[in-house]
């Protein structure tokens, strides 16, 4: 079906929209857009990209909780060296993570990540050294509190020093955190540099941006409300920049882990804004979040019917047309395609 | 009345506010602000600028719909080569537009525009060539999906190659579209370059920015809701940048063309945000939109009374004063002046 | 208590968070972050910084209102040369301010400021000259309508010319206004330059940014609503940039000075967004605003209990922990600390 859709798209779309589609469907497109200072084309939400609808943190110092991961089905699990670990347990955390990486079998965890401490913390180098000694390396590295392009250069330098002339067969996936006003101000530059290093070094591929809402609130002196109106600018700016660079955008954590109704509401809102996933801190949050960031049956029915109608009208040479009382042209067709693509990527994944 | 108001303003305002007013009233001011990398002063919503409260798209491939334009009264009508035209009808569209431009008499259309395909589409050059052969050229050119300053340079180059040493007697009016995360990220640079080319070439004058919300949503993976909360950041950023460069800002399209109540609500909201107009896709939407983007009788009464009160207080040497329970100073006077100016510009135009 | 808290923080936090705290507690830290183009570390809401929860304007031309200041208790009072003064009373205003500065005893005004006219107005130089002749200089200078880094250089140049080789023993505190689309677009650059000049000249220290909402609305053609949805982008962008540069952020004025319920609601909303204070235009607004920008007893109780729980869990080596049904880690601890700090700074100040 993908091939026949591609043929249709090739015929009907202007070249740019077609390239747009292609790049989203591509497994590992690395061509650039040919624009000044332009982000390179990267696949997004397409095949070859790891879905991260739910991103679950587990404190690296808690052996019991880490062991429980083997019974969990989740898109992304994060062994945490940072905020979830007390300062006097940092050594324990990184050692426990190293051992657990080598011993734990996690067939139902899609993406296994380690979050090291912030580059400015003085702890990051020790974290990284220990993790890189593990028998099995994590799929993804997560860097919190990125506030400068130099943080990404630091990572490239450390990995280069570690691997020497024998880089890993496939680069680490990299996910960075924006958690301060300064980080948000510089996010576009940081993503730009992250993509440049992804192209020019063999060590990592920047795949996503996480919005660390609670650190951000502390930084700007804001107070969280249930509606999160105070974070609207920051959240939508994070989505816009992430998507401009074809990166995943991971939304804020819902810290009241007992209120699942409110979690669902917030998750659906994040998905509507364009976030591709959400941070979770309790296993009970996983299924609600993963469902919210998957297309609903109603949306899939709408998308399929719209694309069918679109194809009919294209064959008969009509452009814009009416569908269920709305005027449809290419942008809505692209939205419908996004929905079906996302459904395809996550169809074998547990919700 | 304009002259006496100007005299009053000259006396009462600080020099900057006075220049501010002057530039808005001026027919074709081109002086720069004398600031580093500053946008040049351009008229806005003032005399000499084409109002574009409603911007109506008509598919260029649909001869019957184009012919109907002669019976419509609308601020701006757009003959469309882009999203409203099926891929296998692009040739037909540009030919039909060329012929219609030469033959159709449109006394009740304020501004006649052609939207060519995106510069990256591979179709734009053919569109432009055909349109430039028309017996009567359009007033305005519209360029969709602008994501780079190079798109504007492309247009200047093509027009220069076409016209050679004999540029058109008056430059085309130019309206550009922001329809992607990347376009939004670069919008300030794009407007800056658009203004530079408007000053340094005889081919076009950048007058407005359209927010293409549905393409934008497809690009960032967002889902449209009736309240459009998911687009708040993008819409308000578009308004801010457009106004910083003294450009019109044209708001999103309301695709459910049967729900006129909801259209009115969304139009009024856009006007309150600072948008100067809105895209429409059905003739029934025109009067509602043009009314929403015109000052209401209540607002005009408020503006007139406030300015009268202001003049009295100025003559008696009082600064800030109380008017209907609110403390009034220059900013509110400027707002009142904007309202009367807009009313003046659109007073002979149909709603 | 501060010392013991610092010791605990030193032990438990990663180095960055610790520096973060330190800089906020420091009286006059001037070290830079060591990042490219990075704002320097400055104290924020901490000891040594003047609270400006309410910022009250008094027209400089109104001797009677200026005299009434001696009976008012307010964080910050502004003798205004700008929007509150009629154009034919500018001379009177600056003379009256000079005399009043020398004669008035204001023990219950925390910070005494003068707002001169905008640098582009042609009036600013005369304002400044007159004010600098006063027997007692104001604590703070306020510059409205800043739209360019050159406005700050102008101020440094004028002060340098006035003081020659004998700069004032302590620099003026400087508060700037963002009141236009262009000013908002350039705000980060302006703050950057303000901090650079604060470090490299002995004349002023940039402490805050005021959002001039009504001039901003006039500039972008927006219409104010009670909910101020149309200003969400601008307000949250101002907070984000101000906080990235460790500056105070002063929120919009509530012009309907009789509606105190609505004032309270808007003040609390601004405080939740991260604003540190609000402009007021009537003495009756002061206590409501100062209370809204102070931590509530409930928030202080929450903050104290959370920090106690945090310390216990740190001693026992646990990282993230559950507190009142929420998962707590460092970001929430930092928020709790902010609340207690703010309470400490304002505890001897009148509400």
Compile the SSE list and pairings.
The structure is a homotrimer of 351-residue chains.
Chain A: H1 2-12, H2 15-25, E1 54-59, H3 63-68, E2 74-80, H4 90-103, E3 109-115, H5 124-132, E4 140-143, H6 149-163, E5 172-178, H7 181-185, H8 187-200, E6 204-211, H9 213-220, H10 232-244, E7 248-251, H11 260-273, E8 277-280, H12 285-292, H13 297-315, E9 321-323, E10 326-328, H14 330-346
Parallel strand pairs in A: 1-2, 1-8, 2-3, 3-4, 4-5, 5-6, 6-7, 7-8
Antiparallel strand pairs in A: 9-10
Helix pairs in contact in A: 4-5, 6-8, 11-12, 13-14
EC number (chains A, B, C): 2.3.3.9, 3.1.2.30, 4.1.3.25
Keywords (chains A, B, C): Acetylation, Hydrolase, Lyase, Magnesium, Metal-binding, Mitochondrion, Transferase, Transit peptide
Binding site for Mg(2+) (chains A, B, C): 179, 215
Task: Tell me what the structure shows.
The structure is a homotrimer of 351-residue chains. Chain A is an alpha/beta fold. The first copy, chain A, folds into 2 domains: 2-24 and 298-346, no CATH class; 49-293, Phosphoenolpyruvate-binding domains (TIM Barrel, Alpha-Beta Barrel). Chain A contains 14 helices and 10 strands. In chain A, strands 1-2-3-4-5-6-7-8 form an 8-stranded parallel β-barrel, surrounded by 4 helices. In chain A, strands 9-10 form a two-stranded antiparallel ribbon.
């Amino acid at each position: 079906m993908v091939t026949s859709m591609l043929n249709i798209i090739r015929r009907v779309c202007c070249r740019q929209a077609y390239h747009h589609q292609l790049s989203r469907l591509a497994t590992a497109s690395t061509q650039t857009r040919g624009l000044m200072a332009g982000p390179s084309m990267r696949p997004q939400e397409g095949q070859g990209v790891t879905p991260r609808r739910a991103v679950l943190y587990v404190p690296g110092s808690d052996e019991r909780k880490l062991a429980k991961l083997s019974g969990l089905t989740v898109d992304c699990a994060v062994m945490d060296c940072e905020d979830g670990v007390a300062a006097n347990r940092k050594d324990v955390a990184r050692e426990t993570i190293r051992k657990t990486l080598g011993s734990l079998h996690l067939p139902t965890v899609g993406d296994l990540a380690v979050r090291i401490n912030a580059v400015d913390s003085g702890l990051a180098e020790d974290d990284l050294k220990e993790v890189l000694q593990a028998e099995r390396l994590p799929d993804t590295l997560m860097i919190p509190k990125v506030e400068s392009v130099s943080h990404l250069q630091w990572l490239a330098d450390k990995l280069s020093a570690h691997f020497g002339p024998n880089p890993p067969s496939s680069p680490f996936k990299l996910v960075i955190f924006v958690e301060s006003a300064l980080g948000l101000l510089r996010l576009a530059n940081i993503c730009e540099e992250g993509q440049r290093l992804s192209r020019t070094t063999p060590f990592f591929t920047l795949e996503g941006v996480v919005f660390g809402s609670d650190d951000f609130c502390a930084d700007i002196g804001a107070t969280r409300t249930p509606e999160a109106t105070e974070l609207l600018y920051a959240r939508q700016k994070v989505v816009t920049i992430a998507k401009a660079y074809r990166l995943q955008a991971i939304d804020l954590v819902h810290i009241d882990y007992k209120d699942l109704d409110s979690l669902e509401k917030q998750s659906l809102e994040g998905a509507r804004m364009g976030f591709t996933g959400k941070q979770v801190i309790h296993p009970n949050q996983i299924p609600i979040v993963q469902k919210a960031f998957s297309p609903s049956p109603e949306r899939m029915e709408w998308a399929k019917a719209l694309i069918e109608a679109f194809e009919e009208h294209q064959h008969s040479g009509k452009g814009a047309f009416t569908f269920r009382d709305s005027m449809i042209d290419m942008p809505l067709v692209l939205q419908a395609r996004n929905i079906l693509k996302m459904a395809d990527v996550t169809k074998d994944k547990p919700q």
